[in-house]
UniProtKB/TrEMBL annotation:
Signal peptide: none annotated. Keywords: Arsenical resistance. InterPro entries: Ptyr_pPase (IPR023485), Ptyr_pPase_sf (IPR036196). This is Protein-tyrosine-phosphatase. Pfam families: LMWPc. SUPFAM superfamilies: Phosphotyrosine protein phosphatases I. GO terms for biological process: response to arsenic-containing substance. It comes from Tranquillimonas rosea.
Length: 153
């Protein structure tokens, strides 16, 4: 059985999509290969996103912020699913994805936008991590579950 490719898409590819990519690659094992990208990628992953992943024992490897255009060319992997993780990306003119992957939108708050103390910011990243972990574990264990019907909040 070949693995299905999943692209998590956000504006900057610095927090939500990075965390989702690492989680699904850990949980998806032989069934899924996760990628992440941004419509307007930032300078790199948010430090608290990486801190949160490390705190939960995930290997970070070569996680980096990438542009969506890397997944549209002839050398791009065939995508089976494209999942947007924020409302603003759904409003954008997204690229045409080769292979007509199934698309879904999971509306998740951006922890990088939280103002306040470091403790409040870390709590926002932990909340996001918990939501994504719960939903992606279900998805990784149940290939028949439709992405559109998953509630992550």
């Amino acid at each position: 059985m070949s693995r299905k490719n999943v692209l998590f898409l956000c504006n900057h590819n610095s927090a939500r999509s990075i965390i989702a990519e690492v989680l699904l690659n850990d949980f998806g094992g032989d069934h899924y290969r996760a990628f992440s990208a941004g419509i307007r990628p930032g300078d790199g992953p948010h430090p608290m996103a990486l801190e949160t992943l490390r705190a939960h024992g995930h290997e970070i490897g070569e996680v980096r912020s990438k542009g969506a255009e890397l997944f549209t060319g002839p050398d791009a992997p065939t995508l089976h699913y494209v999942i947007t993780l924020c409302d603003s990306v759904a409003q954008e003119d997204c690229p045409v994805w080769p292979g007509q992957p199934e698309r879904a939108q999971w509306r998740l708050p951006n922890p990088a936008a939280v103002a306040g103390s470091d403790a409040e910011k870390r709590a926002a990243f932990e909340d996001l991590y918990a939501s994504l972990r719960r939903g992606l574990k279900i998805f990784a264990e149940d290939d028949e579950r439709s992405l559109r019907n998953m509630a992550l909040a």
